[in-house]
Amino acid sequence: MDSAFLAQSVCLDDTTVKFEIWDTAGQERYHSLAPMYYRGAQAAIVVFDITKPDTFERAKAWVKELQRQASPNIVIALAGNKADLAEKRLVEYEEAQTYADDTGLLFMETSAKTAMNVNELFLAIAKKMPKTDTQNPTHAARHRGVNLQDPDAHSPRACCGGN
């Protein structure tokens, strides 16, 4: 599968939230393999291109699938990417925001090129995620991939030291 893996940490108050990110690029030929990526995930970001309305329609299909098949507590964020190309916009901000509101999603417009709202989106996701119950191993195992109880989180340097 053409996918990429990235680990990223975000500081939230006195806790470090560690994201383990699988980017599958949403390619249709790999659609049948997607559940192995989102099974057990605590969060998903569905990205569309604001200059291509067909990508917004595909994003809606992915959201529907995630809401039907993924963990019932999954946090789903919708990202309208390529905000740096706003002059070529074909998906209106209000349309995407209304859809996100109606389906219970976080929504932000982003730019991978300029990094606009990328960190903000991860921070918003982290704020919506429940803290992992470290006393309950079943719960902790079900929520693998993001550890909100990082043992280093008690150190201020570990949390907001630019990681």
From TrEMBL:
Record-level Gene Ontology MF annotations: GTP binding; GTPase activity
Source organism of the structure: Scophthalmus maximus
Region (Disordered): 132-163
Official protein name in the record: RAB5B member RAS oncogene family
Family that this chain belongs to: Belongs to the small GTPase superfamily. Rab family.
GTP-binding listed as a keyword: yes
Protein keywords: GTP-binding, Nucleotide-binding
Cited Gene3D superfamilies: P-loop containing nucleotide triphosphate hydrolases
PANTHER family with a match to the protein in the record: PTHR47978
SUPFAM superfamilies assigned to the protein according to its UniProt record, in alphabetical order: P-loop containing nucleoside triphosphate hydrolases
